[in-house]
Design goal:
Layout: E1 2-4, E2 20-23, H1 24-32, H2 34-42, E3 45-47, E4 50-51, H3 52-72, H4 81-95, E5 98-99, H5 107-128, E6 131-132, E7 142-151, E8 154-165, E9 171-179, H6 192-203, H7 205-208, E10 215-222, E11 242-243, E12 247-249, H8 254-272, H9 295-300, E13 306-308
Helix pairs in contact: 1-2, 3-4, 3-5, 4-5, 6-8
Length: 329
């Protein structure tokens, strides 16, 4: 779906330029390093090796979201989310050259951990009494891709993991995450990802059948390895996979949302003007570590280990929601 917001008056609309499509991940990458953005999104280069975290997180998303949908429709007894995780990760491992890590050094270690994490998510979801909100067609609002027009030819897209209802009928916008460790206790209060998701959800609230959201949160699963048994069959060290209780914060204010929109428009203007400088920063906070897929190409001009990603074509905006009146924010 596509909606339009009134651009801030102090940002110059770039009406005749080529469309710019932004998301949280792409715009944040530009903020970290514009040159890296160019390599990934303009040159369409990617590593020939896919990190294990991507496969783990994708399989977890598919398993948990399948459960959430089934639960909302009272069909949860008709599927096995744990089996879905195993199937999806097996498919990922079969179709990619996987870069395993020290913690997850094999497919078996990932599957064992992921199956436990999915089980703990289900326990958490049911324990909190959550259920997915339904749109006017009776479909759960889960893994919903929404797009908003920020300015002429500038589009922002976000995928909403779930709009969930609490026992008290509060509407929470939640992003389901897997991480190696818990985020800082106040990170969600400023997280741009949640701001961007609120932006698109409230722009589409009529189509979604909601008045707005009452809170924002990350629903974090900590992807830990299964502790090995100690001698004598005693429990080994470590906690194993853990699902944390969501930390809920109030929705962003109108000023906070507009500030986020403005910052995305600045990025769009820089992209249109071809501003892609390298951003190494300083030694203590440089993004130019071995974790950057483009490090050797950036420093030495060596493209070994990179390939051109297949193009999916230019995104086609969905029919616009009429928002010619005042901004919904």
């Amino acid at each position: 779906m596509n909606a339009q917001l009134s651009p801030p008056s102090n940002v110059m609309p770039l009406e005749f330029a080529k469309p710019v499509y932004l998301s949280h991940s792409s715009s944040t990458l530009y903020e970290v390093c514009p040159h890296k953005y160019k390599e990934r999104y303009k040159e369409r280069l990617e590593s020939t090796v896919t990190g294990v975290s991507l496969g783990y997180g994708s399989a977890y998303d598919e398993a948990t979201c399948a459960f959430i949908v089934a639960h909302a429709l009272a069909h949860e007894n008709q599927l096995d989310p744990v089996a879905i995780f195993e199937e999806k990760f097996e498919e990922f491992a079969r179709t990619n050259t996987v870069g395993y890590s020290t913690t997850f050094n094999s497919k078996e270690a990932c599957v064992a951990s992921g199956k436990v994490l999915v089980e703990k998510f289900i326990e958490s979801w049911l324990g909190h009494g959550y259920t997915a909100a339904l749109d006017p067609e009776g479909k759960p609002i889960v893994q919903r891709e929404l797009r908003v027009k920020l300015a002429p030819n500038v589009f922002y897209t976000a995928i909403i993991d779930v709009l969930m209802m609490t026992r008290d009928c509060e509407m929470l916008l939640s992003d389901i995450k897997t991480a190696a460790q818990a985020s800082d206790g106040s990170f969600h209060l400023n997280a741009g990802q949640l701001t961007g998701q609120q932006l698109v959800v409230e722009a589409h609230r009529d189509a979604l059948g909601i008045d707005g959201v009452d809170g924002l949160c990350f629903y974090q699963g900590l992807k830990k390895s299964i502790p090995k048994l100690a001698k004598g069959g005693k429990a080994g060290r470590g906690t194993g996979p853990v699902v944390l209780d969501p930390m809920v914060c109030p929705p962003r204010t109108e000023a906070e949302v507009q500030a986020y929109v403005e910052s995305r428009l600045w990025i769009a203007e820089d992209i249109r003007r071809g501003r892609f400088p390298k951003r190494p920063l300083d030694a203590y906070n440089t993004p130019c570590s071995d974790l950057c897929d483009y490090r050797q190409r950036c420093i030495h001009g060596d493209s070994t280990g990179l390939r051109v990603r297949a193009s999916r074509g230019t995104p086609t905006p969905s029919p616009s929601i009429d928002s010619s009146g005042p901004s919904p924010f």
